[in-house]
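User: Predict Protein GrpE's structure from this.
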Amino acid sequence: MTEETPGFEEKPDVPSGATPEDAEPKAASPSSEGAAAPAGDASAQNAGLVAQLDQVRTALDERTLDLQRLQAEYQNYRRRVERDRIAVKEIAIASLLTELLPVLDDIGRAREHGELVGGFKSVAESLETVAAKMGLQQFGKEGEPFDPTIHEALMHSYAPDVTETTCVAILQPGYRFGERTIRPARVAVAEPQPGAQTVKAEESTEAGDDKENGGPDEG
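Assistant:
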């Protein structure tokens, strides 16, 4: 019998003329196709990420525009609500002040006749103060030009000393609240005397002629 020598390992058969390195297994080297494949996958992945980023940006821009539109609509809504609230408040105050006008007229007549005395005077003045604080304004004065938008002519006459239609008497004062005329001033008006303007124009023309000619002739 043949005894095996310890530590002896069998080696693969090596053909004659071959070197020992030929007998060792070689690691498979990656082919050019295998190396090109990962690079192609990375490019495709990057292109996909860029496309997704563009979609996200587009969606973000759309949501931003929607938000801006909503904010603009909300601001317009708030302005409309505030404008309507102010209008309703003004209408309510104007209605209340309109109901007080006859009382204020009575107070005015009592003051003209010297009847505004004692406790009645204190109450009347307090009422007028409250009305003024609420924004009520009285208007209408003698001698001011007649304005049909704020005056109501109840009497009409002619006067030689006016050059335009003029309020010569205030029969009932007018009242306004803010820009709103609650009641026009009821007045008596006077117009220039017919023919007076023609005479004045002729006198002005004659005076001008005298100045040009060196004045009137002296006897």
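The chain has a mean pLDDT of 80.
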